[in-house]
Every structure is written in C-alpha cells, then in structure tokens.
Amino acid sequence: MMEEQELATRCTRKDKEAREELFRRYGPRLFALCLRYSRDRDEANDLFQDAFIRIYDRIGRFRWQGGGSLFRWMARLTLNMHFDKARRKRIYQETDIGPYEETLPEPDYEETLQVPQEVLAEMIGRLPERYRTVFQLYCIEGLSHVEIARLLGIKEKSSSADLARARALLSRQIKQYLNDD
C-alpha cells in the first residue's frame, strides 16, 4: 500500500494504478460524507462522482501535512463543492428565523449512551436541513462557526444559533425516546 504522499504524487502524474488505489482507499469514507450532506442517495452519488473528477483534476494542489491530510483535503474539496452549489441554489440563505426562546437542558452523557447509534442518526436526519448541516459541520467535521458561516454564506451568529436550535431539537427527541422506553 502506497503512503499518502506517494499516492498523491503518482495521481498527479495520472498514474492509473494510483488513481484506482485512491478511489478504493478513500471512496467509501468520501461517499459516506456525501450521504451525510445530501438530501438523498441520488444527490450523494452525483456529488461523489463530481468530487472525484475534481479531486483527480486538482490533486496537484494537494500539500501533504501529515497523516490523514489527503482525506481531509478531499473532504474539504467535496464539502466546498456541495456548499457552493447550495449557495447558488440559495438553500442555506440567511433567513430571519426569529429568536429561539425555548432552552431545554441537553441530555447528560449517560442518557445519550442509552440511545442506539442508528436511532441517534435517524434523529439527526430528521432535523431541518440547515440545522442538521450546521450540527454535522460543527460536531462531526469539527469546523468552527467562522468556517461554517463562510461555507454556507451565513453569519457566524446564525451558525451558532442554528447549532443551539439543532441541539435543542435533538435534546427533545432524545428525552422523548427515553420517556417512551
């Protein structure tokens, strides 16, 4: 198995074997990322295919920064493509949602562990698209509110408010799930 740096260098030279390995090694994780941010499987497939075309086209711009940096670069390029398209369609446009007054205490760690992972994933999937996106970018991808605001074309405070709303909605769903059991 090639190291990341060698793999990227060989892909830059359009080495067919290296491109196939890049696809095999990182394709499943990248597709999972596409699924998280797409509305359905068809949209995820389109994004995934477009992303690999762009990755192969721009691999020469990749700068190795240690282990895992190749996938981080690929993921960032893919997310940028998705959000550029969404901005053009104005999916994440700034809206006046109004103040969010309800504040539910977040479930404690022990309560959250009682919810099966599949159920938690479904709960996240039921969040309104913008809240779900901000939640995933912040909690899963580890982006800051500044980065999220830039990606989505919204204000930093809106990103923070959307995260609070997402957490409150998830909290409500988790509490309801635990009360139903």
Task: Describe the protein in words.
The structure is a single chain. With 181 residues, the protein is mainly α. It folds into two domains: 4-89, RNA polymerase sigma factor, region 2, helix turn helix motif (Rna Polymerase Sigma Factor, Chain: A), CATH 1.10.1740.10; 109-180, Orthogonal Bundle (Arc Repressor Mutant, subunit A). It contains nine helices and no strands. The chain has helices at 4-12, 16-37, 41-58, 69-89, 109-113, 117-126, 129-140, 145-152, 156-180. Helix 1 crosses helix 2 (16-37), helix 2 crosses helix 4 (69-89) and helix 3 packs across helix 4 (69-89). The longest helix is centred in the last third of the chain and has 25 residues, at 156-180. The chain is elongated. The termini are far apart. Mean pLDDT is 86; it is low at 94-101.
